[in-house]
Design goal:
binds iron/sulfur cluster; globular; Rossmann fold; 389 residues; 14 helices
Length: 389
């Protein structure tokens, strides 16, 4: 049935899946694999390879995207934190994550740290991991330190599954995710070189689906979809090329992306669902897969507000991305109360001003339902780029 669907029909179908906060694909997988485990992965980047190597299903946990009311979470977490933290907790408290056996959080910010602690207290039946990423990337001990952190996760997964994870399992998982990241990058290449063939709204739906499916299934789906995209008959329009910056953790409402694109923008690059193309190069397949993952995190990761940088500063990498993407303007589009995004905004916007690059700024939250004012602001921005740059 999948083979007969057009690209547009697939997008419509996939959207119904990603919009369903009861995780239907995960529940189905669990029914089919009752003895296997599901591991929830909180953004921005988590090593999906590890649960995969243990025969488990890693699943992206990105909050509820405004689909549920926050009735219980506010009694356990502050109301002045980002929506993703509150709605993820609400998903747990309303038993929508009951099929999850473990959850991974990482050292991206105080909110994620706090949430991992709240999770441990409220869901003692689930394994909760808080991954400490290296902070000093130039220190020669950093790969060894992070490798030890990964080894600890592997040992805990072995305990959870009762199965030894071999180097071969890990290498196979790295290879499988390398292939998936390569296909995700192909989508981004289409978006950048022929943006009229693939909107960010569509690319996002396809990538978000990948956070819910076994990676092999998602790669197969991408292999079917990419040729379909190339065959689309669509005319290029006189749109401005913009880049979205700041949406790396809590994801903006899909309607917001539609509004930006409808207002005359091609979003040729962004930091949405960043884990799907986290590494600049394939993770090398060598004799020590954990060290290989650790070294890739330190030396071959994309820049992000939640990753400490090494020799090249974030603002340098930000400017390089603008240049290589032939970007006309930047949209700073960050979730309310997201400190990492707001702190970087100050530094990055200064760089744009220095280089005379246009930008505009707005915030979003999951429950946002009215986009008219943003539409008008983006339309004005587009006109200013087209006529005054
Ligand atoms: S949205 Fe920002 S503040 Fe909230 S958990 Fe993510 S990185 Fe932290």
């Amino acid at each position: 049935m999948e083979k007969q669907m057009t690209f547009e029909e697939k997008i419509e179908h996939y959207r119904t899946i990603i919009d369903d906060v009861s995780y239907p694909t995960v529940n189905k997988w669990k029914e089919e694999h009752p003895n296997k485990k599901v591991v929830g992965m909180f953004p921005v980047y988590t090593p999906y390879e590890l649960p995969h190597a243990a025969g488990m299903l890693p699943v992206g946990v990105f909050g509820a995207g405004g689909k549920i009311e926050i009735d219980h979470a506010d009694s356990r977490i502050q109301s002045f934190v980002c929506s993703i933290a509150r709605s993820t907790l609400e998903l747990g408290l309303t038993e929508r994550l009951k099929n999850f056996d473990a959850l991974y959080f990482t050292s991206i910010c105080d909110v994620a740290r706090n949430l991992s602690g709240i999770w441990q207290t409220n869901f003692p039946q689930q394994l909760v991991e808080y991954i400490h990423f290296p902070q000093n990337m130039n220190n020669s001990s950093a790969p060894k330190h992070y490798r030890a952190e990964l080894q600890k996760l592997v040992s805990n997964l072995e305990q959870l599954s009762g199965k030894k994870i071999t180097n071969e399992d890990l290498l196979n998982s790295i290879k499988t995710f390398n292939r998936n990241r390569e296909l995700c990058l192909q989508l981004y290449h289409i978006k950048s070189t022929t943006p009229h063939l693939l909107s960010t709204f569509e690319a996002y739906i396809v990538l978000r689906l990948g956070t819910l499916l076994p990676v092999e299934e998602h790669s197969q789906l991408l292999e079917g979809i990419i040729p379909q995209i190339h065959q689309r008959k669509r005319t290029a329009r006189d749109f401005v090329r913009v880049m979205i910056e700041g949406s790396f953790c809590e994801q903006p409402p899909l309607e917001l992306m539609q509004v930006i694109e409808d207002a005359g923008c091609y979003i040729v690059d962004d930091d949405l669902l960043l884990h799907s193309r986290w590494f600049n190069e394939a993770v090398p397949l060598n004799g020590d897969p954990l060290l290989s993952l650790a070294e890739s995190y330190i030396n071959r990761s994309r820049y992000s507000s939640v990753r400490h940088y090494g020799n090249k500063s974030r603002k340098e990498q930000f400017l390089e991305k603008i240049k290589s993407g032939k970007v006309d303007g930047v949209l700073f589009c960050a979730p309310k109360f997201c400190e990492p995004a707001l702190l970087d905004y100050v530094v990055l916007k200064d760089e744009l001003e220095k280089h005379n690059i246009s930008y505009m700024t707005f915030e979003y939250e999951e429950k946002m339902g009215v986009f008219e004012s943003i539409r008008m602001q983006v339309e004005t921005f587009v006109e200013s780029v087209l006529f005054f740059s």
